[in-house]
Amino acid sequence: MWLGLLGAASLAGLFFGSLFSGALIDRIGRHPIFAFDMPLLAALSLAQFWTAAAWQLLLLRLLLGLVLGADYAASKTLVSELAPRKSRGRMMSVLAIAWAAGYTIAYLVGYLIAQTASGGRPWTWMLASSAVPALLVAAARLGVPESPRWLIAKGRAQEAAAMIAAKIGPHVTLPTAPAPAPATSSGAPAESGSLRALFAPALRSRTVIACVFYLCHIMPYFALSTFSPRILASLGVHNAYFGGAVYNLLLLVGAVVGMSVIDRLTRRRFLVGSFAVAAVLLLPLGILHDLPITLVIVLFAALAFALSAADTLAFVYPQELFPTRMRATGVGAAVAASRIGASISTFLLPVVVESFGIRTAMTGLVLVLAAGALACYRYAPETSGLKLGSQ
């Protein structure tokens, strides 16, 4: 029970942190949370080292999730609004590469700590080690300004112009003021930073497709990444932890390739194609028996590559779906939906494997990927080359 609760705590915190912080970020600005959440994250990470009871760790993991959820909404929104339109895809894809690199390094560092830490509590060193990247990121964020698009949307154009001149240069054109907020069904203007406004007629379809895309992408991504050693062992690979390390390294390679192609393909083509390719690669692992071990490793590695390349879209596409006044709120809702998918997949996958076998679990993930491809083909709007203030 405690293993399940501790595993779910950070995901639950991420869900609530991203869902409810987005509205706050759209009201008070991106910078306050972006600038100060990493020191808090470092302090909470270090506190895990001294936990003496399971409930204490549960509370810390929940708080860590809340802080990270808020950072997801703030950092993705701020970086997207500071990026030039023509290179926005590539610049935002750097976040996907950094995420994959952190994920891979965490896997390797955790394994090394488990092998070398003295005493009976190596997990305390694992969890406390997350304070190191948090402090490095906090230092890197010093001097990053507020979003000029948010300032203009709040009627602070002179402040935005001064910031652009000081931080970026006089050659940059000031973004135009965003269009007025559309009215709600009652006739009143839609409130900036309101979760209810996400489901007003003007934004409803975009909110739904952002959540569906992120949910259908993250379910196989998290399930396969979290349980890669166990899955490989179930498929007959004997050195499963080595296979898991290869899988995680290919997540990093896939993110780099995703960055190189994201501005060369239309968003819709990348969305639908990435879901379809991942489904085709996973399908043989679900329906075929007694595959050669070499082929299993090749398919699993190619799947890691495809999923990670598609993950670059998670750092670009949701931001492009929403206007400035609602961007953090929309991104927060999409991230919250992804945490639902991550929670479902990481909980259900070992249960399904135990009860029905590994191939049933793989087939279920194929259906999730196919649903994502169909939904994006039918409903996802094209956002390539979009000016973020033009929605």
From TrEMBL:
Pfam family, one: Sugar_tr
Keyword annotations of the record: Membrane, Transmembrane, Transmembrane helix, Transport
Source taxonomy: Bacteria, Bacillati, Actinomycetota, Actinomycetes, Kitasatosporales
Location of this chain's protein in the cell: Cell membrane
Transmembrane residue ranges: 46-70, 91-113, 125-144, 208-228, 240-262, 269-287, 293-316, 328-349, 361-380
Domain Major facilitator superfamily (MFS) profile: 1-384
Protein name, as recorded: MFS transporter
Topology in the lipid bilayer: Multi-pass membrane protein
